[in-house]
Amino acid sequence: MIRINPSEITPEHVYVSRRKFMGGIGALVTSSLVLSACVRQEPSPTPASAEPSPASPVPPSPTTSTDELGDKLTSFQAITNYTNYYEFTTSKEGVARLAQDFKASPWTVEVGGLVHKPKTFDVDDLFKFSQEEHIYRLRCVEAWSMVIPWVGFPLAELLKEVEPMSKAKYVRFETLYDPDQMPGQKSGGYKWPYVEGLRMDEAMHDLPILATGLYGKSLLPQNGAPVRLVVPWKYGFKSIKSIVKIDLVEEMPVSLWMAAAPHEYGFYANVNPDVSHPRWSQATERRIGESKRRKTLLFDGYAEEVAPLYSGMDLRKWY
Amino acid sequence: MVLVRKLKPRWLQILTHLAGLLPLVWLLWAYWQGLFIIDPVQEITTRTGKTTLILLILSLACTPISTISGFKQVLRVRRALGLYAFMYASLHFLTFVGLDYGFDLDLIRYDIVDQRYVLVGFAAGLLLLLLAITSTQGWQKRLGKNWKRLHRLVYLASAMAIVHFAWQVKDIREPLRYGAVLALFLILRIPGVRRAASNVRYQLKMSRQSQSEA
Description:
Helix content of chain A is 19%, strand content 20%. Chain A is α+β, with helices and mostly antiparallel strands and 319 residues long. Chain A has two domains: 10-41; 47-310, Alpha-Beta Complex (Sulfite Oxidase, Chain A, domain 2).
């Protein structure tokens, strides 16, 4: 079979007319509607021509076309139309459409718990931190991956501002709970809101960022607008989206996935080709936009930076 | 009336072939048009897999539909539905080995030990292969009574297909929905349930007759 290069993606006017044709036979296959629905509202397929959002004082991005390992950036289109965001739907292609009217403003992030200076940040406060480009790999626990040019600032900077107490051992993050805006939260099966956590030393590391944008534009709702966590050496589900609350705590937080399936999803969730998910292998992955599978790297290729955080720990036990 | 009776089965056959071929036509067309823009391999794998499951369930629906509704013609499309299911299972397998792993046996071996869903799916595929080979009238004659026994393996194969689906996803609600429909059609085959269902039909028919007589 012939493979389609991202560069060969059909221009918008062609697929729009195709879309009309599809409408005629759309009843045949319902999932095609999901796909085309994404296409209809998709922003600009070429990031270069994308208007910089006036709200965000972010640098033009990306400045390079690869990550530090020489891997190509994933297309803006793929990043914004293929997302796991169960608050909207479990269909990765369906999130963008369902999230398009999500209100990411006004927005506040309440930072508290075991800190000396609790503070509620609004979006303007977050933009006071210097926004920089961070090109990170993102490895999903489902064994696919992307390379994403995020815009944001180190989580550690925000934490330093609230002055953590010495007894704070973990950071607990929480996503917005608003079933009217997030239809997926209406269905049972998960303990909403979404919760994630990091150990204090992980949170204070240089790599984790609070992202406010990607490809030089403000985050779109499907990617976790207005602010989300990005922890590049852990499976994607650790990088919690649309954060409203950050608490510093003494006890290890129980994340939504730990509560849903404790034997499958642990607190650490470090990318590790040698520690399989109980039901599938993590040894290889499919990079979105590439044809052949590639081998997964320990800590998603950030071992040099983060392996010391886990020295002496049994990574099989602490999955 | 005679005309209607003659036409009905033909329509059913046409519908069956449409059900069997349209998913493939749509898949090729969508691929050709570049509609699978983000993860084509995943898209093709999922679509061929789900189509296999749907056709398998349809083939297993024929017998209960015929016993409950009395519409016997539906039994004539069972074999075609089963063979179409096998065709999609083969495409599904080829996608996994060829498109996903690029026929790289080392990579497959590296991955497969920890992927029990692959093993269950592969075993289900082997069962379907066996049933497809022995689906001809020649084999039916050769195997006699045992043919029916052998082909009951399709119950096992379809249950394994559901397990294969459920074991590889984070959220198992979708495979459970497929499983529920499959379970319904399997339960309707249990002799007691089947008898009860056809009794209800008989009584309905009787009451309708007595109503029209009155």
